[in-house]
Amino acid sequence: xxxxxxxxxxxxxxxxxxxxxxxxxxxxxxxxxxxxxxxxxxxxxxxxxxxxxxxxxxxxxxxxxxxxxxxxxxxxxxxxxxxxxxxxxxxxxxxxxxxxxxxxxxxxxxxxxxxxxxxxxxxxxxxxxxxxxxxxxxxxxxxxxxxxxxxxxxxxxxxxxxxxxxxxxxxxxxxxxxxxxxxxxxxxxxxxxxxxxxxxxxxxxxxxxxxxxxxxxxxxxxxxxxxxxxxxxxxxxxxxxxxxxxxxxxxxxxxxxxxxxxxxxxxxxxxxxxxxxxxxxxxxxxxxxxxxxxxxxxxxxxxxxxxxxxxxxxxxxxxxxxxxxxxxxxxxxxxxxxxxxxxxxxxxxxxxxxxxxxxxxxxxxxxxxxxxxxxxxxxxxxxxxxxxxxxxxxxxxxxxxxxxxxxxxxxxxxxxxxxxxxxxxxxxxxxxxxxxxxxxxxxxxxxxxxxxxxxxxxxxxxxxxxxxxxxxxxxxxxxxxxxxxxxxxxxxxxxxxxxxxxxxxxxxxxxxxxxxxxxxxxxxxxxxxxxxxxxxxxxxxxxxxxxxxxxxxxxxxxxxxxxxxxxxxxxxxxxxxxxxxxxxxxxxxxxxxxxxxxxxxxxxxxxx
Length: 608
Known about the structure:
By secondary structure, this protein is of the alpha/beta class. Helix content is 62%, strand content 13%.
Protein backbone atom coordinates (compact mmCIF):
# COMPACT_ATOMS: atom_id res chain seq x y z
CA UNK A 1 0.00 0.00 0.00
CA UNK A 2 1.34 3.43 -0.95
CA UNK A 3 1.01 5.75 2.05
CA UNK A 4 1.01 8.90 -0.08
CA UNK A 5 -2.34 7.85 -1.57
CA UNK A 6 -4.20 7.64 1.77
CA UNK A 7 -6.74 10.37 2.45
CA UNK A 8 -7.77 9.98 6.12
CA UNK A 9 -11.30 8.94 5.16
CA UNK A 10 -12.52 8.89 8.78
CA UNK A 11 -11.26 12.35 9.73
CA UNK A 12 -14.85 13.62 10.16
CA UNK A 13 -16.01 10.51 12.01
CA UNK A 14 -15.25 12.00 15.42
CA UNK A 15 -16.92 9.26 17.46
CA UNK A 16 -14.92 6.57 15.66
CA UNK A 17 -11.65 8.50 16.10
CA UNK A 18 -12.21 9.13 19.81
CA UNK A 19 -13.13 5.48 20.30
CA UNK A 20 -9.85 4.46 18.64
CA UNK A 21 -7.72 6.89 20.68
CA UNK A 22 -9.47 6.03 23.96
CA UNK A 23 -7.23 2.99 24.79
CA UNK A 24 -4.27 5.39 24.81
CA UNK A 25 -6.10 7.92 26.97
CA UNK A 26 -7.47 5.36 29.45
CA UNK A 27 -4.21 4.70 31.42
CA UNK A 28 -3.95 8.42 32.21
CA UNK A 29 -7.63 9.15 32.76
CA UNK A 30 -7.14 10.41 36.35
CA UNK A 31 -4.61 13.09 35.37
CA UNK A 32 -6.66 14.00 32.30
CA UNK A 33 -9.81 14.29 34.45
CA UNK A 34 -7.88 16.40 36.96
CA UNK A 35 -6.76 18.65 34.13
CA UNK A 36 -10.33 19.07 32.93
CA UNK A 37 -11.53 19.79 36.48
CA UNK A 38 -8.87 22.50 36.78
CA UNK A 39 -9.92 23.87 33.38
CA UNK A 40 -13.46 24.55 34.70
CA UNK A 41 -12.61 27.13 37.42
CA UNK A 42 -9.79 28.41 35.20
CA UNK A 43 -12.37 29.37 32.61
CA UNK A 44 -15.00 30.59 35.07
CA UNK A 45 -12.52 32.98 36.72
CA UNK A 46 -12.40 34.98 33.45
CA UNK A 47 -15.70 36.56 34.49
CA UNK A 48 -14.44 37.85 37.88
CA UNK A 49 -13.12 41.17 36.56
CA UNK A 50 -16.28 41.87 34.59
CA UNK A 51 -18.47 40.89 37.55
CA UNK A 52 -16.45 43.18 39.86
CA UNK A 53 -17.22 46.22 37.69
CA UNK A 54 -20.91 46.29 38.67
CA UNK A 55 -20.38 46.87 42.44
CA UNK A 56 -17.39 49.08 41.71
CA UNK A 57 -19.39 51.36 39.38
CA UNK A 58 -22.65 51.29 41.36
CA UNK A 59 -21.23 51.63 44.87
CA UNK A 60 -17.66 52.96 44.71
CA UNK A 61 -18.00 55.40 41.81
CA UNK A 62 -21.54 56.30 42.89
CA UNK A 63 -20.46 56.48 46.55
CA UNK A 64 -23.45 54.44 47.71
CA UNK A 65 -23.51 51.97 50.57
CA UNK A 66 -24.83 48.47 50.01
CA UNK A 67 -27.71 47.73 52.41
CA UNK A 68 -29.21 44.22 52.74
CA UNK A 69 -31.26 42.19 55.24
CA UNK A 70 -30.28 38.75 56.52
CA UNK A 71 -32.13 36.79 59.26
CA UNK A 72 -34.16 39.85 60.25
CA UNK A 73 -31.02 41.93 60.66
CA UNK A 74 -29.98 44.82 58.48
CA UNK A 75 -26.38 45.01 57.29
CA UNK A 76 -24.51 47.82 55.60
CA UNK A 77 -21.39 47.48 53.45
CA UNK A 78 -19.93 50.92 52.91
CA UNK A 79 -18.63 52.11 49.55
CA UNK A 80 -15.21 52.64 51.17
CA UNK A 81 -15.10 48.93 52.04
CA UNK A 82 -15.90 48.03 48.43
CA UNK A 83 -13.17 50.43 47.24
CA UNK A 84 -10.66 48.60 49.46
CA UNK A 85 -11.76 45.00 48.85
CA UNK A 86 -12.50 44.89 45.12
CA UNK A 87 -8.92 45.61 43.86
CA UNK A 88 -7.44 43.06 46.28
CA UNK A 89 -10.02 40.44 45.26
CA UNK A 90 -9.25 41.00 41.57
CA UNK A 91 -5.51 40.50 42.22
CA UNK A 92 -6.16 37.44 44.41
CA UNK A 93 -8.36 35.83 41.75
CA UNK A 94 -5.72 36.59 39.08
CA UNK A 95 -3.07 34.91 41.25
CA UNK A 96 -5.31 31.87 41.74
CA UNK A 97 -5.98 31.72 38.01
CA UNK A 98 -2.22 31.88 37.28
CA UNK A 99 -1.50 29.00 39.65
CA UNK A 100 -4.29 26.91 38.13
CA UNK A 101 -3.05 27.72 34.61
CA UNK A 102 0.49 26.54 35.47
CA UNK A 103 -0.81 23.30 37.01
CA UNK A 104 -3.12 22.73 34.06
CA UNK A 105 -0.36 23.26 31.48
CA UNK A 106 2.00 20.89 33.31
CA UNK A 107 -0.60 18.12 33.57
CA UNK A 108 -1.57 18.62 29.91
CA UNK A 109 2.04 18.44 28.70
CA UNK A 110 2.71 15.31 30.81
CA UNK A 111 -0.35 13.40 29.62
CA UNK A 112 0.08 14.55 26.00
CA UNK A 113 3.69 13.35 25.83
CA UNK A 114 2.81 10.04 27.49
CA UNK A 115 0.02 9.39 24.98
CA UNK A 116 2.24 10.47 22.07
CA UNK A 117 5.02 8.12 23.17
CA UNK A 118 2.59 5.20 23.54
CA UNK A 119 1.19 5.79 20.05
CA UNK A 120 4.68 6.12 18.54
CA UNK A 121 5.87 2.91 20.20
CA UNK A 122 2.84 0.96 18.94
CA UNK A 123 3.21 2.45 15.46
CA UNK A 124 6.90 1.54 15.37
CA UNK A 125 5.98 -2.00 16.43
CA UNK A 126 3.55 -2.02 13.51
CA UNK A 127 6.20 -0.63 11.18
CA UNK A 128 8.80 -3.31 11.93
CA UNK A 129 6.20 -6.02 11.31
CA UNK A 130 5.56 -4.84 7.74
CA UNK A 131 6.87 -6.90 4.84
CA UNK A 132 9.78 -5.70 2.60
CA UNK A 133 7.40 -4.83 -0.24
CA UNK A 134 5.85 -2.16 2.00
CA UNK A 135 9.29 -0.52 2.22
CA UNK A 136 9.80 -1.00 -1.52
CA UNK A 137 6.63 0.95 -2.29
CA UNK A 138 7.02 3.81 0.21
CA UNK A 139 9.85 6.39 0.28
CA UNK A 140 11.67 6.87 3.59
CA UNK A 141 10.41 10.45 3.96
CA UNK A 142 6.75 9.42 3.74
CA UNK A 143 7.32 6.67 6.32
CA UNK A 144 9.12 9.05 8.72
CA UNK A 145 6.39 11.66 8.32
CA UNK A 146 3.54 9.20 8.79
CA UNK A 147 5.04 7.21 11.66
CA UNK A 148 6.69 10.04 13.62
CA UNK A 149 5.14 13.42 12.73
CA UNK A 150 1.47 12.42 12.56
CA UNK A 151 1.45 10.94 16.10
CA UNK A 152 3.05 14.13 17.42
CA UNK A 153 0.37 16.23 15.71
CA UNK A 154 -2.51 14.05 16.80
CA UNK A 155 -1.73 12.61 20.21
CA UNK A 156 -0.01 15.59 21.83
CA UNK A 157 -2.61 18.00 20.44
CA UNK A 158 -5.87 16.26 21.24
CA UNK A 159 -5.71 16.62 25.05
CA UNK A 160 -4.36 20.16 24.89
CA UNK A 161 -6.97 21.33 22.41
CA UNK A 162 -9.83 19.64 24.27
CA UNK A 163 -8.73 21.31 27.50
CA UNK A 164 -8.48 24.64 25.67
CA UNK A 165 -12.04 24.11 24.48
CA UNK A 166 -13.12 23.26 28.05
CA UNK A 167 -11.41 26.35 29.48
CA UNK A 168 -12.86 28.60 26.79
CA UNK A 169 -16.33 27.07 27.05
CA UNK A 170 -16.46 27.62 30.80
CA UNK A 171 -14.85 31.02 30.35
CA UNK A 172 -17.60 31.88 27.90
CA UNK A 173 -20.20 30.34 30.24
CA UNK A 174 -18.93 32.43 33.18
CA UNK A 175 -19.04 35.60 31.13
CA UNK A 176 -22.51 34.75 29.79
CA UNK A 177 -23.71 34.26 33.40
CA UNK A 178 -22.37 37.72 34.25
CA UNK A 179 -24.17 39.07 31.18
CA UNK A 180 -27.42 37.36 32.21
CA UNK A 181 -27.06 38.70 35.73
CA UNK A 182 -26.57 42.20 34.32
CA UNK A 183 -29.40 42.02 31.72
CA UNK A 184 -31.01 38.98 30.16
CA UNK A 185 -32.34 41.07 27.28
CA UNK A 186 -28.88 42.27 26.24
CA UNK A 187 -27.46 38.78 26.88
CA UNK A 188 -29.91 37.31 24.36
CA UNK A 189 -28.66 39.69 21.66
CA UNK A 190 -24.98 39.08 22.49
CA UNK A 191 -25.19 35.28 22.57
CA UNK A 192 -27.26 35.14 19.36
CA UNK A 193 -24.65 37.18 17.51
CA UNK A 194 -21.79 35.03 18.82
CA UNK A 195 -23.54 31.83 17.71
CA UNK A 196 -23.83 33.26 14.20
CA UNK A 197 -20.07 33.93 14.32
CA UNK A 198 -19.41 30.17 14.49
CA UNK A 199 -20.94 29.45 11.07
CA UNK A 200 -17.63 30.07 9.14
CA UNK A 201 -15.85 27.36 11.16
CA UNK A 202 -18.26 24.70 9.90
CA UNK A 203 -17.86 25.88 6.31
CA UNK A 204 -14.07 25.58 6.22
CA UNK A 205 -13.48 22.13 7.75
CA UNK A 206 -13.41 20.08 4.51
CA UNK A 207 -10.87 22.44 2.99
CA UNK A 208 -8.75 22.05 6.10
CA UNK A 209 -8.79 18.24 5.67
CA UNK A 210 -7.69 18.47 2.03
CA UNK A 211 -4.91 20.97 2.74
CA UNK A 212 -3.72 19.04 5.80
CA UNK A 213 -3.40 15.83 3.76
CA UNK A 214 -1.47 17.63 1.03
CA UNK A 215 0.85 19.26 3.54
CA UNK A 216 1.68 15.93 5.19
CA UNK A 217 2.48 14.32 1.82
CA UNK A 218 4.69 17.27 0.84
CA UNK A 219 6.47 17.11 4.20
CA UNK A 220 7.22 13.41 3.59
CA UNK A 221 8.55 14.17 0.08
CA UNK A 222 10.86 16.85 1.49
CA UNK A 223 12.23 14.39 4.07
CA UNK A 224 12.78 11.82 1.30
CA UNK A 225 14.69 14.39 -0.74
CA UNK A 226 16.93 15.23 2.24
CA UNK A 227 17.54 11.50 2.93
CA UNK A 228 18.46 10.90 -0.73
CA UNK A 229 20.75 13.92 -0.75
CA UNK A 230 22.51 12.60 2.36
CA UNK A 231 22.78 8.95 1.33
CA UNK A 232 23.55 9.72 -2.32
CA UNK A 233 26.00 12.54 -1.68
CA UNK A 234 28.84 10.90 -3.62
CA UNK A 235 26.67 10.23 -6.67
CA UNK A 236 25.39 13.81 -6.42
CA UNK A 237 28.96 15.15 -6.34
CA UNK A 238 30.22 12.82 -9.08
CA UNK A 239 27.43 13.64 -11.53
CA UNK A 240 26.94 17.29 -10.56
CA UNK A 241 23.38 16.75 -9.35
CA UNK A 242 23.38 19.60 -6.81
CA UNK A 243 21.18 21.83 -8.94
CA UNK A 244 18.78 18.95 -9.60
CA UNK A 245 18.37 18.20 -5.87
CA UNK A 246 18.08 21.88 -5.07
CA UNK A 247 15.43 22.32 -7.76
CA UNK A 248 13.41 19.41 -6.33
CA UNK A 249 13.69 20.93 -2.87
CA UNK A 250 12.57 24.36 -4.09
CA UNK A 251 9.59 22.85 -5.93
CA UNK A 252 8.50 20.94 -2.82
CA UNK A 253 8.95 23.98 -0.56
CA UNK A 254 6.93 26.22 -2.87
CA UNK A 255 4.30 23.53 -3.35
CA UNK A 256 3.86 23.49 0.44
CA UNK A 257 3.74 27.30 0.40
CA UNK A 258 1.01 27.30 -2.26
CA UNK A 259 -1.07 24.74 -0.34
CA UNK A 260 -0.78 26.79 2.86
CA UNK A 261 -1.60 30.05 1.11
CA UNK A 262 -4.57 28.44 -0.62
CA UNK A 263 -5.89 27.40 2.79
CA UNK A 264 -5.16 30.81 4.31
CA UNK A 265 -6.88 32.53 1.38
CA UNK A 266 -10.00 30.51 2.12
CA UNK A 267 -9.74 30.49 5.92
CA UNK A 268 -8.29 33.90 6.79
CA UNK A 269 -11.62 35.63 6.22
CA UNK A 270 -13.03 33.74 9.24
CA UNK A 271 -11.38 36.00 11.79
CA UNK A 272 -12.40 39.37 10.24
CA UNK A 273 -15.89 38.01 9.54
CA UNK A 274 -16.26 36.89 13.14
CA UNK A 275 -14.93 40.29 14.24
CA UNK A 276 -17.46 42.06 12.01
CA UNK A 277 -20.34 39.93 13.32
CA UNK A 278 -19.19 40.60 16.91
CA UNK A 279 -18.96 44.32 16.16
CA UNK A 280 -22.55 44.30 14.92
CA UNK A 281 -23.52 42.62 18.18
CA UNK A 282 -21.65 45.16 20.27
CA UNK A 283 -23.25 48.01 18.30
CA UNK A 284 -26.71 46.52 18.92
CA UNK A 285 -25.92 46.08 22.63
CA UNK A 286 -24.72 49.70 22.93
CA UNK A 287 -27.84 51.02 21.23
CA UNK A 288 -30.30 48.92 23.24
CA UNK A 289 -28.27 49.32 26.45
CA UNK A 290 -28.51 53.11 26.19
CA UNK A 291 -32.30 52.75 26.02
CA UNK A 292 -32.35 50.50 29.11
CA UNK A 293 -30.21 52.94 31.14
CA UNK A 294 -32.19 56.04 30.16
CA UNK A 295 -35.45 54.24 30.92
CA UNK A 296 -34.19 53.21 34.38
CA UNK A 297 -34.31 49.48 33.61
CA UNK A 298 -30.54 49.09 34.07
CA UNK A 299 -27.83 50.75 36.16
CA UNK A 300 -24.60 52.15 34.71
CA UNK A 301 -22.66 49.56 36.73
CA UNK A 302 -24.67 46.70 35.28
CA UNK A 303 -24.13 48.07 31.76
CA UNK A 304 -20.38 48.49 32.29
CA UNK A 305 -20.19 44.94 33.66
CA UNK A 306 -22.20 43.62 30.68
CA UNK A 307 -20.12 45.41 28.01
CA UNK A 308 -16.87 44.25 29.65
CA UNK A 309 -18.18 40.67 29.70
CA UNK A 310 -19.18 40.90 26.05
CA UNK A 311 -15.76 42.24 25.03
CA UNK A 312 -13.99 39.60 27.12
CA UNK A 313 -16.28 36.96 25.60
CA UNK A 314 -14.94 37.73 22.14
CA UNK A 315 -11.50 36.34 23.07
CA UNK A 316 -12.61 32.82 24.12
CA UNK A 317 -15.04 32.70 21.20
CA UNK A 318 -12.30 33.69 18.74
CA UNK A 319 -9.90 31.21 20.40
CA UNK A 320 -12.61 28.58 20.27
CA UNK A 321 -12.93 29.11 16.52
CA UNK A 322 -9.16 28.75 16.02
CA UNK A 323 -9.12 25.73 18.35
CA UNK A 324 -11.86 24.01 16.36
CA UNK A 325 -9.80 24.62 13.21
CA UNK A 326 -6.71 23.13 14.91
CA UNK A 327 -8.76 20.19 16.16
CA UNK A 328 -9.81 19.40 12.59
CA UNK A 329 -6.11 19.21 11.67
CA UNK A 330 -5.61 16.89 14.64
CA UNK A 331 -8.50 14.66 13.56
CA UNK A 332 -7.01 14.45 10.06
CA UNK A 333 -3.71 13.31 11.61
CA UNK A 334 -5.59 10.85 13.82
CA UNK A 335 -7.40 9.46 10.79
CA UNK A 336 -4.06 8.92 9.07
CA UNK A 337 -2.59 7.27 12.18
CA UNK A 338 -5.37 4.72 12.46
CA UNK A 339 -5.08 3.97 8.76
CA UNK A 340 -1.53 2.85 9.61
CA UNK A 341 -2.78 0.73 12.50
CA UNK A 342 -5.28 -0.91 10.15
CA UNK A 343 -2.57 -1.89 7.66
CA UNK A 344 -1.67 -5.55 7.84
CA UNK A 345 1.50 -7.18 6.63
CA UNK A 346 1.02 -9.32 3.55
CA UNK A 347 3.26 -11.91 5.24
CA UNK A 348 1.05 -13.67 7.79
CA UNK A 349 1.59 -16.66 10.03
CA UNK A 350 -0.87 -19.51 9.99
CA UNK A 351 -2.75 -20.51 13.12
CA UNK A 352 -0.69 -22.75 15.42
CA UNK A 353 2.52 -22.53 13.34
CA UNK A 354 5.18 -25.23 13.54
CA UNK A 355 8.72 -24.62 14.76
CA UNK A 356 11.52 -25.26 12.26
CA UNK A 357 14.43 -26.99 14.00
CA UNK A 358 16.68 -27.68 11.01
CA UNK A 359 16.95 -29.44 7.64
CA UNK A 360 16.96 -33.20 7.34
CA UNK A 361 16.54 -33.72 3.59
CA UNK A 362 15.95 -30.86 1.20
CA UNK A 363 14.40 -27.53 0.24
CA UNK A 364 12.04 -27.74 -2.72
CA UNK A 365 10.41 -25.12 -4.97
CA UNK A 366 7.26 -26.53 -6.56
CA UNK A 367 5.64 -24.75 -9.54
CA UNK A 368 6.53 -21.29 -8.14
CA UNK A 369 4.76 -18.22 -9.55
CA UNK A 370 5.62 -14.84 -8.08
CA UNK A 371 4.86 -11.24 -9.05
CA UNK A 372 5.61 -7.84 -7.52
CA UNK A 373 3.01 -6.13 -9.72
CA UNK A 374 -0.27 -7.88 -10.42
CA UNK A 375 -0.31 -9.86 -13.67
CA UNK A 376 3.41 -9.24 -14.28
CA UNK A 377 5.07 -12.49 -13.11
CA UNK A 378 8.76 -12.41 -12.19
CA UNK A 379 9.06 -16.18 -11.57
CA UNK A 380 7.07 -18.47 -13.83
CA UNK A 381 6.23 -22.04 -12.76
CA UNK A 382 9.72 -22.69 -11.43
CA UNK A 383 10.64 -26.11 -9.99
CA UNK A 384 13.84 -26.81 -8.10
CA UNK A 385 15.07 -29.15 -5.35
CA UNK A 386 18.18 -28.44 -3.24
CA UNK A 387 19.56 -31.18 -0.99
CA UNK A 388 20.82 -30.67 2.55
CA UNK A 389 24.40 -29.29 2.63
CA UNK A 390 24.35 -28.71 -1.13
CA UNK A 391 25.75 -25.47 -2.59
CA UNK A 392 23.64 -24.13 -5.43
CA UNK A 393 25.01 -21.30 -7.57
CA UNK A 394 22.32 -19.20 -9.25
CA UNK A 395 23.23 -17.35 -12.45
CA UNK A 396 21.31 -15.73 -15.25
CA UNK A 397 20.43 -12.53 -17.02
CA UNK A 398 20.02 -9.28 -15.07
CA UNK A 399 16.47 -8.92 -13.76
CA UNK A 400 15.74 -12.57 -14.43
CA UNK A 401 14.59 -13.34 -10.88
CA UNK A 402 17.73 -14.61 -9.10
CA UNK A 403 17.46 -12.36 -6.02
CA UNK A 404 13.70 -12.79 -5.98
CA UNK A 405 14.09 -16.56 -5.75
CA UNK A 406 16.34 -16.46 -2.66
CA UNK A 407 14.21 -13.73 -1.03
CA UNK A 408 11.27 -16.13 -1.05
CA UNK A 409 13.03 -18.60 1.26
CA UNK A 410 12.90 -16.39 4.42
CA UNK A 411 9.45 -15.17 3.28
CA UNK A 412 10.46 -11.59 2.60
CA UNK A 413 7.75 -12.00 -0.03
CA UNK A 414 5.04 -14.63 -0.45
CA UNK A 415 4.49 -16.53 -3.67
CA UNK A 416 1.33 -16.16 -5.75
CA UNK A 417 1.00 -19.90 -6.33
CA UNK A 418 2.95 -23.10 -5.82
CA UNK A 419 4.87 -23.96 -2.66
CA UNK A 420 8.29 -23.85 -1.05
CA UNK A 421 8.90 -26.74 1.32
CA UNK A 422 11.56 -27.75 3.81
CA UNK A 423 11.55 -31.50 4.33
CA UNK A 424 8.13 -31.61 2.69
CA UNK A 425 6.54 -28.94 4.96
CA UNK A 426 5.40 -25.69 3.36
CA UNK A 427 7.42 -22.80 4.83
CA UNK A 428 4.13 -20.92 5.42
CA UNK A 429 3.36 -23.51 8.11
CA UNK A 430 6.42 -22.50 10.15
CA UNK A 431 6.53 -19.52 12.48
CA UNK A 432 8.38 -16.61 10.87
CA UNK A 433 10.78 -16.40 13.79
CA UNK A 434 11.82 -20.05 13.65
CA UNK A 435 12.09 -20.00 9.84
CA UNK A 436 14.27 -16.89 9.70
CA UNK A 437 16.39 -17.98 12.66
CA UNK A 438 17.58 -20.92 10.53
CA UNK A 439 18.72 -18.64 7.69
CA UNK A 440 21.80 -16.38 7.52
CA UNK A 441 22.06 -13.87 4.68
CA UNK A 442 24.99 -11.90 3.33
CA UNK A 443 23.83 -9.24 0.88
CA UNK A 444 25.75 -7.31 -1.74
CA UNK A 445 25.44 -4.14 0.34
CA UNK A 446 25.13 -5.16 3.99
CA UNK A 447 23.58 -2.74 6.43
CA UNK A 448 25.57 -1.97 9.58
CA UNK A 449 23.83 -0.25 12.47
CA UNK A 450 25.18 2.65 14.49
CA UNK A 451 27.19 1.04 17.31
CA UNK A 452 30.43 -0.88 17.75
CA UNK A 453 31.86 -3.59 15.52
CA UNK A 454 31.17 -6.07 18.31
CA UNK A 455 27.53 -5.01 18.64
CA UNK A 456 27.02 -5.41 14.88
CA UNK A 457 28.52 -8.91 14.88
CA UNK A 458 26.56 -9.95 18.00
CA UNK A 459 23.30 -9.18 16.17
CA UNK A 460 23.76 -12.62 14.61
CA UNK A 461 23.38 -14.23 18.04
CA UNK A 462 23.05 -11.94 21.08
CA UNK A 463 23.52 -14.96 23.38
CA UNK A 464 26.91 -15.96 21.92
CA UNK A 465 29.89 -16.20 24.28
CA UNK A 466 33.38 -14.74 23.95
CA UNK A 467 34.80 -17.89 22.37
CA UNK A 468 32.09 -18.02 19.72
CA UNK A 469 32.62 -14.33 18.96
CA UNK A 470 36.39 -14.80 18.68
CA UNK A 471 35.91 -17.78 16.33
CA UNK A 472 33.52 -15.78 14.12
CA UNK A 473 36.02 -12.89 13.93
CA UNK A 474 38.84 -15.28 13.05
CA UNK A 475 36.83 -17.17 10.41
CA UNK A 476 35.72 -13.89 8.80
CA UNK A 477 39.37 -12.74 8.57
CA UNK A 478 38.57 -9.66 10.64
CA UNK A 479 41.29 -9.90 13.28
CA UNK A 480 43.97 -7.97 11.36
CA UNK A 481 41.57 -5.12 10.66
CA UNK A 482 40.39 -5.01 14.29
CA UNK A 483 43.99 -4.99 15.58
CA UNK A 484 44.71 -1.84 13.56
CA UNK A 485 41.84 0.10 15.16
CA UNK A 486 42.54 2.08 18.37
CA UNK A 487 39.47 0.70 20.14
CA UNK A 488 39.64 -2.71 18.48
CA UNK A 489 36.36 -4.60 18.30
CA UNK A 490 34.72 -1.86 20.40
CA UNK A 491 35.34 0.77 17.71
CA UNK A 492 32.20 2.81 17.07
CA UNK A 493 30.88 2.73 13.52
CA UNK A 494 29.23 5.74 11.94
CA UNK A 495 25.83 5.62 10.28
CA UNK A 496 25.60 2.49 8.07
CA UNK A 497 29.32 1.82 8.69
CA UNK A 498 30.28 4.08 5.79
CA UNK A 499 33.65 4.85 7.41
CA UNK A 500 34.74 1.29 6.50
CA UNK A 501 35.67 -0.09 3.11
CA UNK A 502 33.26 -2.36 1.25
CA UNK A 503 35.37 -5.43 2.02
CA UNK A 504 35.50 -4.59 5.73
CA UNK A 505 31.72 -4.17 5.90
CA UNK A 506 31.26 -7.49 4.10
CA UNK A 507 33.52 -9.33 6.56
CA UNK A 508 31.61 -7.89 9.52
CA UNK A 509 28.41 -9.13 7.87
CA UNK A 510 29.99 -12.55 7.33
CA UNK A 511 31.07 -12.71 10.99
CA UNK A 512 27.49 -11.83 11.95
CA UNK A 513 26.20 -14.67 9.74
CA UNK A 514 28.76 -17.08 11.21
CA UNK A 515 27.67 -16.27 14.73
CA UNK A 516 24.10 -17.10 13.72
CA UNK A 517 25.27 -20.61 12.76
CA UNK A 518 22.16 -21.20 10.65
CA UNK A 519 21.81 -24.33 8.48
CA UNK A 520 20.74 -22.28 5.43
CA UNK A 521 23.06 -19.66 3.95
CA UNK A 522 22.04 -17.13 1.29
CA UNK A 523 24.79 -15.15 -0.47
CA UNK A 524 23.25 -12.48 -2.69
CA UNK A 525 26.17 -11.32 -4.87
CA UNK A 526 28.21 -10.88 -1.70
CA UNK A 527 31.47 -10.05 -3.54
CA UNK A 528 30.24 -8.31 -6.69
CA UNK A 529 30.99 -4.75 -5.51
CA UNK A 530 34.54 -5.44 -4.27
CA UNK A 531 37.99 -4.98 -5.80
CA UNK A 532 40.11 -8.05 -6.47
CA UNK A 533 42.13 -7.89 -3.23
CA UNK A 534 39.07 -7.38 -1.01
CA UNK A 535 37.18 -10.02 -2.98
CA UNK A 536 39.85 -12.62 -2.34
CA UNK A 537 39.80 -12.00 1.44
CA UNK A 538 35.99 -12.00 1.57
CA UNK A 539 35.86 -15.18 -0.53
CA UNK A 540 38.08 -16.98 1.98
CA UNK A 541 35.75 -15.82 4.75
CA UNK A 542 32.74 -17.03 2.77
CA UNK A 543 34.35 -20.42 2.27
CA UNK A 544 34.55 -20.75 6.06
CA UNK A 545 30.94 -19.65 6.42
CA UNK A 546 29.41 -22.19 4.05
CA UNK A 547 31.06 -25.32 5.44
CA UNK A 548 28.43 -28.05 6.02
CA UNK A 549 25.55 -25.71 5.16
CA UNK A 550 22.81 -25.61 2.55
CA UNK A 551 23.91 -22.67 0.43
CA UNK A 552 22.19 -20.52 -2.19
CA UNK A 553 24.72 -18.24 -3.84
CA UNK A 554 23.97 -15.64 -6.49
CA UNK A 555 27.41 -15.41 -8.01
CA UNK A 556 29.40 -13.55 -10.58
CA UNK A 557 32.76 -15.08 -9.65
CA UNK A 558 33.79 -18.07 -11.74
CA UNK A 559 35.59 -19.94 -8.94
CA UNK A 560 32.47 -19.75 -6.76
CA UNK A 561 30.32 -21.08 -9.56
CA UNK A 562 32.71 -23.87 -10.48
CA UNK A 563 32.99 -24.99 -6.86
CA UNK A 564 29.23 -25.19 -6.43
CA UNK A 565 27.64 -28.64 -6.41
CA UNK A 566 25.14 -27.49 -9.03
CA UNK A 567 24.39 -24.37 -11.05
CA UNK A 568 20.85 -23.13 -11.71
CA UNK A 569 20.45 -20.86 -14.74
CA UNK A 570 17.43 -18.59 -14.45
CA UNK A 571 16.36 -16.46 -17.41
CA UNK A 572 13.18 -14.39 -17.62
CA UNK A 573 11.83 -16.01 -14.46
CA UNK A 574 12.28 -19.61 -15.63
CA UNK A 575 14.75 -22.33 -14.67
CA UNK A 576 16.29 -23.02 -18.08
CA UNK A 577 19.29 -25.17 -17.12
CA UNK A 578 20.51 -27.10 -14.07
CA UNK A 579 23.74 -29.05 -13.51
CA UNK A 580 27.43 -28.75 -12.66
CA UNK A 581 29.82 -26.56 -14.62
CA UNK A 582 31.01 -29.34 -16.92
CA UNK A 583 27.50 -30.62 -17.63
CA UNK A 584 26.24 -27.18 -18.54
CA UNK A 585 29.28 -26.39 -20.69
CA UNK A 586 28.59 -29.56 -22.68
CA UNK A 587 25.17 -28.24 -23.76
CA UNK A 588 25.61 -26.88 -27.26
CA UNK A 589 24.14 -23.38 -27.62
CA UNK A 590 23.20 -23.56 -23.94
CA UNK A 591 22.35 -20.52 -21.83
CA UNK A 592 25.14 -21.17 -19.30
CA UNK A 593 27.71 -21.69 -22.04
CA UNK A 594 26.75 -18.37 -23.65
CA UNK A 595 26.92 -16.66 -20.25
CA UNK A 596 30.33 -18.20 -19.65
CA UNK A 597 31.62 -16.99 -23.01
CA UNK A 598 30.38 -13.44 -22.33
CA UNK A 599 31.22 -12.99 -18.63
CA UNK A 600 33.19 -15.74 -16.97
CA UNK A 601 35.80 -16.67 -19.56
CA UNK A 602 37.60 -13.34 -19.01
CA UNK A 603 37.91 -14.13 -15.30
CA UNK A 604 39.43 -17.52 -16.13
CA UNK A 605 41.90 -15.90 -18.56
CA UNK A 606 42.96 -13.33 -15.94
CA UNK A 607 43.37 -16.07 -13.33
CA UNK A 608 45.76 -17.93 -15.66
